[in-house]
Write a structure and sequence with these properties.
With about 100 residues, the protein is mostly helical. The chain is built from 4 helices and no strands. The chain has one domain. The longest helix is centred in the last third of the chain and has 38 residues. It is extended and about 60 Å long.
Length: about 100
């Protein structure tokens, strides 16, 4: 974004993309990337990004109040974070099963 701003306007602002940082974190967490690191996939990130953008655009087109839109996105993020622990346990159990098969 900064490069395209610099080309288009011959200047750039540092704070112009600040809101996109949180949105990208939300999309990645929705896609199943663990907050602790070590597990995730590119397909999950793409699906998380699509889910986040569909929900965001759906909220915009329904005409909800901006405060309610933030609440809905927050609930979506909360659900993803709560499911994150489930994904973590699944990844750890898969890793332990694959190590057991290799040792046998």
């Amino acid at each position: 974004m900064g490069l395209s701003q610099a080309i288009l306007y011959n200047s750039a602002q540092v704070s112009a993309g600040q809101s996109f940082i949180f949105n990208s974190i939300i999309a990645v967490v929705i896609g199943g990337v663990l907050l602790t690191g070590g597990y995730g996939s590119a397909v999950g990130i793409v699906l998380g990004t699509l889910t986040f953008s569909i929900v965001s655009q759906g909220i915009y087109y329904t005409g909800f109040n901006a405060n309610w839109a933030s609440l809905i996105i927050g609930v979506l993020l909360l659900a993803a974070v709560l499911m994150n622990n489930t994904f973590r346990n699944m990844a750890l159990s898969y890793a332990s099963r694959s190590r057991t098969k290799v040792r046998s």
